[in-house]
Specification:
Layout lengths: L10 E4 L4 H12 L4 E5 L7 E4 L2 E6 L2 H8 L3 E4 L3 H13 L4 E4 L6 H13 L5 E3 L5 E4 L3 E4 L8 E8 L2 H10 L5 E6 L10 H10 L5 E7 L4 H12 L4 E6 L23 H10 L3 E3 L2 H12 L2
Parallel strand pairs: 1-2, 1-5, 2-4, 5-6, 6-7, 10-11, 10-12, 12-13, 13-14
Antiparallel strand pairs: 3-4, 8-9, 8-11
Length: about 290
């Protein structure tokens, strides 16, 4: 089992023919991802050879879905054009759109997020400014290194790409059912809460690791949700315990004002909901080991 992404997923790549899209399409294919096409209106009708795998290029997401049955799009389109790319994916009603692009204007993210709602939320958005998601041994949609872990029974949801990789590596001997990088921008599609519920419903996930960071109140809202709805054990980590007050740190969403949005406040909220919270990624991994018995 997995959440959102399986070996049956048929993946297209918007922006596949750009330098970043080409590089990561090659890596996703190497991880076993079933990539059935790319999208670039200017190169429609051509194809790209990835080490012996010929991937066709379509003129639109709708055409790619019609010709291939694609149900996932990974979006590597530059920030200025990302809003149009995401809206195109939503209009084509692709079930999952993974927005890797960093630096998208918050107003643009708000626009395509609202557009998805207007269209009945038929498209799940992951990101933007995220590493994507991986189901080890099955499929990889994004930029998460596919060789740092193995299939297992831990579910991971994280705001931070780098900490996603570190946690997967620290617990590589146990392995993961799925890992989802949701991104740290102020406006994102899939949230901690969405992933927590999906892992709760996944019979092959025994323990959930949740990584947050300073700024906003997403972790506090997740804590309240965990207290009410999540029965599986949850281990947490909140990045930014040493961050100075009033300074934006890293992701666009990470700004702290007074006690609001601090790592300590988030840690306390999570612990009040029964979540074991580590002060470092390594301590968090150790707590996960204790709970899963390895």
């Amino acid at each position: 089992m997995a959440i959102f992404l399986t070996k049956e997923s048929k993946v297209i790549v918007q922006g596949m023919t750009g330098a970043t899209g080409m590089r990561h399409t090659r890596l996703m294919l190497a991880d076993g991802t079933n990539i059935v096409g790319g999208v670039n209106p200017r190169k429609a009708g051509t194809s790209v050879d990835f080490d012996g795998t010929d991937v066709p290029v379509f003129g639109s997401v709708a055409e790619a879905i019609e010709k291939t049955g694609a149900d996932v799009s990974v979006i590597f389109v530059p920030p200025a054009f990302a809003k149009a790319a995401v809206i195109e994916a939503i209009d084509a009603e692709i079930p999952l759109a993974v927005v890797i692009t960093e630096g998208i204007a918050v107003h643009d993210s708000a626009s395509f997020w609202a557009h998805a709602g207007e269209k009945g939320n038929k498209t799940r958005i992951i990101g933007p400014n995220c590493p994507g998601l991986i189901t080890p041994g099955q499929s990889n949609a994004g930029i998460i290194p596919g060789d740092i872990t193995k299939p297992g029974r831990i579910g991971l949801v994280s705001k931070s790409g780098t900490l996603t990789y570190q946690m997967m590596y620290e617990l590589r001997d146990i392995g993961f059912s799925s890992a989802v990088g949701i991104g740290g921008d102020p406006i994102i599609g899939t949230t901690h809460i969405d992933a927590l519920q999906a892992f709760q419903d996944d019979a092959d996930t025994d323990l959930i690791v949740m990584i947050g960071e300073i700024g906003g109140d997403a972790e506090e809202r997740a804590a309240a949700y965990i207290a009410e709805h999540i029965t599986k054990p949850v281990v947490g980590y909140v990045a930014g315990f040493t961050a100075p007050e009033g300074k934006t740190m890293g992701h666009a969403g990470a700004i702290v004002s007074g006690s609001s949005g601090t790592a300590q406040a988030k840690k306390e909220a999570l612990e009040a909901a029964g979540v074991k919270v580590g002060k470092t990624p390594s301590e968090t991994a150790r707590l996960a080991r204790e709970l899963i018995g390895k």
